Amino acid sequence: MRLINKVIIVTGSCTGIGKAIARRCVAEGARVVIHGLDQQEAGEALVTELGADKAVLHLEDITADGAPQRLVNQALNAFGQLDGIVNNAAMIATSNIHTTSLAFFRTVLEVNTLAPFALIQAALPHLTQTRGAVLNIGSANAWCGEPDLVPYSASKGALMTLTRNLGDTLHRENRVRVNQVNPGWVLTEKELAQKRGQGLADGWHQELPRTLAPAGRILRPEEIAAAAIYWLADESGPISGQVVDLEQYPLIGRNPPKDADALPALKE
């Protein structure tokens, strides 16, 4: 097992990608702190599934004053050490240049960029002791993003720069590695609910055009979790300050489809 005896905090882990990462961490020998905002039923069910000796639950707004330190304390009180954190909790909301207020933009930055920084800050003394690892969960939108994901995309771009900055500084000064993965389109519970709210049929993800999903499907949370383990495990060695895109096509220099008619039509 690749994470034997390690203790990992996974924020936003009651559902989706975070839940898959927490499950995989335990399968690889780790003990985990499950975190969520208000998903008590889902969080308790996951702790029961993983085992009370392997997981504990902490429900709190990650942006609340003192929340990062309380998460760290939960890990220390339950398991006596801290070897890694996964900054996965994120606010994903649709808004563009016309609909985004500064107050809303600040809220997204608080959740997606400043909260991860605060958790790294709180965990650093303990990660230094264990020569631990930080894994930030970004997004392919960090490179530019969609028109209706302006604050979210900018917040993930800022997280990417933070990863590279701290990945250099903390590795040299504290022997703590900081890396990031940028998932593309992932089939999570939230994605299913959002598309259902937009009027799509439940099987929409089974009939995707190859321009959007060359494999004929989008990514699964378990596939992101499999990649996450490498960065939390000792086998990733001294690698730090790196950002890896997890998508089924290149984000830069993508080849256009041979059939021009397969491209979406431009709207007047």
From TrEMBL:
What the record says about family reads: Belongs to the short-chain dehydrogenases/reductases (SDR) family.
Q: What PROSITE patterns does the annotation carry?
A: ADH_SHORT (PS00061)
Q: One of this protein's Pfam families, by short name?
A: adh_short_C2
Note the superkingdom of the native organism. Bacteria
- Show the InterPro entries listed in the entry: NAD(P)-bd_dom_sf, Sc_DH/Rdtase_CS, SDR_fam
Residues in the signal sequence: none
Protein name stated in the entry: Short-chain dehydrogenase
Its lineage opens with: Bacteria, Pseudomonadati, Bacteroidota, Cytophagia, Cytophagales
